[in-house]
Amino acid sequence: MTLSTLRRVAIGTSAAFALAALGWVGWIGAVDAPARHARLEGLRAELRELGRLEEGLERFAPYWRALESTSGAPPAPADLWAAVAPGLPGPEVAASAEQPLRPPWRVRRQELSFAETATDALGAFLEACGTARPPWRASSLRLHALDAGATRARVWLALEAAARAPEGTTP
Questions:
Q1: Of the residues 22, 48, 69, which one is the last residue of a structural domain?
Q2: What is the C-alpha separation between 155 and 119, in angstroms, rounded?
Q3: I need a labelling partner for 108 at 20 to 30 A (CA). Which of 38, 88, 98, 170 fits?
């Protein structure tokens, strides 16, 4: 065998090994393709969900701007009641809780009960809650009329409001 023949054999053998290696890599890639495809589909689903969340944030941007322009703390419901119904007994605060919203905001929830109150005063109270800055929102209301004309009632009311966390605290 001559030197040129040995070179041809070496080149041919090298080319065969290179093709075998490429085939092996291709086969490994084909075997792994379903897992990579599933991962890509999962990432696409996450991206779609993030897009929906971003649209939601944009939709609520005016409300956040309105909240930012407030003083940060809603007036106490007892103070609102005293302003709209002077002389009438105030509500009993049955429960009060807070949960984080978006820093620095949190949702303040208060449950109030009135043993017996005038329904027109209750209407004025709910209006005062809605016009307070930031406003209180009635999330639940149970009303039991105590007379035939429905001028007096027993009331259970849950109010919610956004409140700014004090500086230096975590909401």
A1: 69
A2: 9
A3: 88
